[in-house]
Design brief:
The protein is α+β, with helices and mostly antiparallel strands. It has two domains: about 1-30; about 35-140, Nuclear Transport Factor 2, Chain: A (Roll), CATH 3.10.450.50. The protein has helices at about 5-30, 40-55, 60-65, 65-70, 75-80, and strands at about 85-100, 100-115, 125-135, 135-140. It has a four-stranded antiparallel beta sheet, with helices on one face.
Length: about 150
Amino acid sequence: MSNKAGRLIGVGALALFVAGLGFSWAWKEGVYPLNQHTDKALLRRAQTFWDLKIAGDLQQAYDLMAEPYRRRVTLTGFARQGAGVVVHTGAKVQRAEIEADVAQVELELRHYFDHANFRQMEATSKIQDRWIFENGTWYRWPAGMRG
């Protein structure tokens, strides 16, 4: 075997090794949708929830609520919560802290009060959302709900 052929084989083996390392790292970190129990997957899901809610797609947002909540509260009840008082205009999920199957997600929520005197006064609040991991994915656990 020539020296040039040996180098090509070595470079090819090195490339395969590096690609294998990259793939195994990506698998561990949560190649969507294979591994949902990561902060990356949780942040994506939480952002999706708030984007849907703000866009008015309440059915899909409701589907991201925890199962015990959906057993107690209908879609109509979910849609009524906060309606007519606060209008959410944007959300930016910032970080998540996961402890086993429970997590806290921190986000910045933009909103205004739905009253003629306050509509031009948009405010930003930092809030904590609780999420639980059930049935292989993350679901939002509403504030004030025990469990």
